[in-house]
C-alpha cells in the first residue's frame, strides 16, 4: 500500500477555483465600534478552497476510487457524484465535502470498505461562516485509517435556518461528546444523537459562544459582579 502524500497545492494558480464568501475589513471584522486593534484599514477576502480536479496525487486517488466503488455496491443506496459535493486537496490534505443527507452512508463506507478502513474518528470541529449563504454552519470530521495509515477529512454543511446534520454516533461512537461540544458552541443539531445536551455551557445558556454573530462582550460573569464591556466601551490604545 502507498502512504506517499501529494505536495501542497496552495499556490495561486491552483487556487483559481476558490469561492470568495466575504470581504473582511479590520483585524477581526468588527463593525460599528471603535477600532482598538490598530489594524482597522486591513482589507482581505475570505475564501474557501474550491473543488480540485483529478488526479489528486498520492494515495488520494486510491481513496476516491475506493469510495466510489463502495457506494456503487449493493450495501449503500448512494452514488458518489450524488453524495459528494466536491473533493478538495489543499495544504496536503484531502477533504470530502459530503451532502448532509448522505453523510451516514459515506461514513459507513469509509469505515467498512476493505480498501478504506477509516476505523477511527479523531473528532468533530464546527465552523460558522455567516456570509456563506445557505451553508453557514459546517461540521468537519477528522478520520484516520489505522490499517492503511492514512488520514482524511469529511466536511458537511447546513443552512443557519435549518441547522440539522445526521449524527455519526452509530457509525463512530467516539463522536458522542465531540458532537455535543459542537452543538454547544455552534448550535448544530445532530439528528439521532442519543443525548444532545450542552457539555460546557450551563443548560440555560442563551446562544452558542463560538458563532461569529455571538457578542464579543457585555456578558455578565459570576465573579464579584464583574462584567465584560462590549467593544465600543473598552479603552482604546491608539
From TrEMBL:
Primary location class: membrane
Top-level division of the source organism's lineage: Bacteria
Domain (NADH:ubiquinone oxidoreductase 30kDa subunit): residue spans on this chain: 96-218
Enzyme class: translocase
Region called Disordered, residue ranges: 219-238
Keywords, sorted A to Z: Cell membrane, Membrane, NAD, Quinone, Translocase, Transport
UniProt catalytic activity: a quinone + NADH + 5 H(+)(in) = a quinol + NAD(+) + 4 H(+)(out)
InterPro entries hit by this protein: NADH_DH_suC, NADH_quin_OxRdtase_su_C/D-like, NADH_UbQ_OxRdtase_30kDa_su
Bilayer disposition of the protein: Peripheral membrane protein
Gene3D superfamilies: NADH:ubiquinone oxidoreductase, 30kDa subunit
An MF annotation (GO) of this entry: NADH dehydrogenase (quinone) (non-electrogenic) activity
GO cellular component terms given for this protein: plasma membrane
E.C. code: 7.1.1.-
Compartment(s) where it occurs, according to its Swiss-Prot or TrEMBL record: Cell membrane
UniProt subunit comment: NDH-1 is composed of 14 different subunits. Subunits NuoB, C, D, E, F, and G constitute the peripheral sector of the complex.
Functional note: NDH-1 shuttles electrons from NADH, via FMN and iron-sulfur (Fe-S) centers, to quinones in the respiratory chain. The immediate electron acceptor for the enzyme in this species is believed to be a menaquinone. Couples the redox reaction to proton translocation (for every two electrons transferred, four hydrogen ions are translocated across the cytoplasmic membrane), and thus conserves the redox energy in a proton gradient.
UniProt cross-references to PANTHER family, sorted A to Z: NADH DEHYDROGENASE [UBIQUINONE] IRON-SULFUR PROTEIN 3, MITOCHONDRIAL, NADH DEHYDROGENASE UBIQUINONE IRON-SULFUR PROTEIN 3
Family: Belongs to the complex I 30 kDa subunit family.
NCBIfam families with a match to the protein in the record: NuoC_fam, PRK07785.1
Protein name: NADH-quinone oxidoreductase subunit C
Highest classification ranks of the organism: Bacteria, Bacillati, Actinomycetota, Actinomycetes, Mycobacteriales
Amino acid at each position: 500500500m502507498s502512504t506517499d502524500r501529494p505536495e501542497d497545492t496552495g499556490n495561486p494558480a491552483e487556487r483559481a477555483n476558490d469561492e470568495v464568501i466575504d470581504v473582511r475589513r479590520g483585524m477581526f471584522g468588527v463593525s460599528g465600534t471603535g477600532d482598538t486593534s490598530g489594524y482597522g484599514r486591513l482589507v482581505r477576502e475570505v475564501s474557501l478552497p474550491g473543488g480540485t480536479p483529478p488526479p489528486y496525487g498520492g494515495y488520494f486517488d486510491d481513496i476516491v476510487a475506493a469510495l466510489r466503488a463502495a457506494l456503487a455496491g449493493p450495501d449503500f443506496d448512494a452514488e458518489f457524484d450524488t453524495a459528494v459535493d466536491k473533493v478538495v486537496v489543499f495544504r496536503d490534505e484531502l477533504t470530502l465535502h459530503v451532502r448532509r443527507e448522505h453523510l451516514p452512508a459515506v461514513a459507513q463506507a469509509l469505515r467498512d470498505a476493505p480498501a478504506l478502513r477509516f476505523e477511527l474518528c479523531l473528532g468533530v470541529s464546527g465552523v460558522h461562516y455567516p456570509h456563506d449563504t445557505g451553508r453557514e454552519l459546517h461540521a468537519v470530521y477528522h478520520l484516520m485509517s489505522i490499517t492503511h495509515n492514512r488520514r482524511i477529512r469529511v466536511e458537511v454543511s447546513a443552512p443557519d435556518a435549518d441547522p440539522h446534520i445526521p449524527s455519526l454516533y452509530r457509525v463512530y461512537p467516539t463522536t458522542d461528546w465531540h458532537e455535543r461540544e459542537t452543538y454547544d458552541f455552534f448550535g448544530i443539531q445532530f439528528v439521532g444523537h442519543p443525548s444532545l445536551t450542552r457539555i460546557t455551557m450551563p443548560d440555560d445558556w442563551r446562544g452558542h459562544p463560538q458563532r461569529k454573530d455571538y457578542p464579543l462582550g457585555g456578558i455578565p460573569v459570576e465573579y464579584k459582579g464583574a462584567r465584560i464591556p462590549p467593544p465600543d466601551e473598552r479603552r482604546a490604545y491608539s
